Amino acid sequence: MPHPWAIRLVTSLAFVSTAIPAIAPAQAQNAGFDALEDFDYWADLCRLQASAEDYEKALTACEQAIALSPEDADIWAQRSGILVNLAAFPDAIASANRALSFDPQNSLAITYQCVAYTALGESETALDKCNDALRVNGSWGRENPALAWLYRGTILAQSQQYELALVAYERTLLLAPEDSRTLTRQCQAYLDLAQSARAIQSCEAALAGNGQWGEVGPALAWTYQGQAYTQLSQYDKAIFAYDQAISLDPDNALTWAAQGQVLAALRHNQEALVSYNRAVEIRPDYALALLGQCTLLNRLSSYEPALAACDAAIDGDGDWGSQSLAQGWNERSIALTGAGQYEEALASINRAVGIQPSYVAAHNHRSTILWYLGRYSQALAANQQALELDETYAPAWFTRGVIFRAMGHYTEALAAYDRALALDPFNAWGWTNRSLVLWQLEQYDEALASAERAIALEPESVPALYNQGTALSALGRYESAIAAYNQVLALDPTYADALTGRAIAHVYLKDYAAAVADLQAAIALNPSDTLAQETLASLRPEIEQP
């Protein structure tokens, strides 16, 4: 399939000006010569119209010149370049072959063949042609070798040979030091190598360069700059760059998707979703943007639309950007897990691991699904695979703690949480779960301390506040426990366990009326709450006393 950016290239990639004053045929006759029979006139007009990007008129002028001098290699080469700009790639190759039949050393004609083969997706042939043009170093017409070096770099970058591409771009810039287009391609190559600082320098130079953008445009330079700042986690600068890009080209799906990634990293979920939605409006089958939608919808617990987005991503155009097909299957599995479809989720995560066996997060999520299914031994084995791949991956240690707790192995669970929190000490969920395990180990002071660490990180965490209440109650600090349960119920009045816990604290304080009221409310919310039922039954003698 032709590369769309390869269509407007020849004149726009001219590194030497081809602008020549034009004389219309009637003006030429008035000037004292018959322009209609003058080869130089038509050849110059061909170049002038090409420089003005009026390719149809340029082609007509070239045809007139060829009719007058059918063996002129340079005009056949010029015709080849015009045909490339008209996206007539096979004709462009044929025209270049005519040029080479008269001048086998015509480097410009060989270069235009390189351009045409690149557009046709025949990268190996294209690279051979660019190499031949540079090796021969024959006639370049009004151009210079910069065009061949630029295309050599572009082809190498497409095949992920970024270091070699950068060498080619440096050679281009020796011939055209301020060429905005080449500097943008250089920026892109540095970006692909994660050399973010150099990428930013190249994109800044492109934006300050000669304004000869060709197929790329300044919006793309801003987009690449934004991606480089994203790699450096300098999100404010990234957002500024994306805003600049969008103001120049509001219909670029790549930029909208890149902006969505930054906003998602900042946890600006709704704004990120808007950006991804816009990208999908522009490119409905854009895999990267659809995956972004799925990921955010999972984060927002909107599992059915998340599943639809992931399915669309997997069936999409295959352009995953910095993401991958394996991530698509992983997020699909997360959506199915959230929807309670655990067997289907397991099938999806198996696809992810099959595609990318080194995918740590997928192995960890697989262990989570197996935990949901009650297959604890298998869950532990999957978790072990994740940790063997990366023992510094904190989420896997958290999952390990969950599995061990489900198995009743509280000491091992505590050790796993300790490893996780050493790697990620600001994880409120981890401190909350650690407090629960400590409570089960009857280490109530430590349980209280862990719950309070969680609350310090996330003051409105209902589970952490509930665990604080249970630890305080176990320590006999019933008034403080009631205060903690009050906070829970202020945040979530339907939290039945908090009502039961508060009732038990009231019992110890011999406030039986309050205890009964809480227990009745708890049972109304959760009729299967056996602890509330048993506690209420045990209070009847106290209530019935005169």
From TrEMBL:
SUPFAM superfamilies referenced in this protein's UniProt entry, alphabetically: TPR-like
Recite the UniProt keywords alphabetically: Repeat, Signal, TPR repeat
- Pfam families found in the cross-reference section: TPR_1 (PF00515), TPR_16 (PF13432), TPR_8 (PF13181)
TPR repeat windows: 39-72, 146-179, 219-252, 253-286, 326-359, 394-427, 428-461, 462-495, 496-529
Signal peptide coordinates: 1-28
PANTHER family tied to this protein? TETRATRICOPEPTIDE REPEAT PROTEIN 6, UDP-N-ACETYLGLUCOSAMINE--PEPTIDE N-ACETYLGLUCOSAMINYLTRANSFERASE SPINDLY-RELATED
Protein name (database record) = Tetratricopeptide repeat protein
Q: Which organism is it from?
A: Vasconcelosia minhoensis LEGE 07310
> Upper lineage ranks?
Bacteria, Bacillati, Cyanobacteriota, Cyanophyceae, Nodosilineales
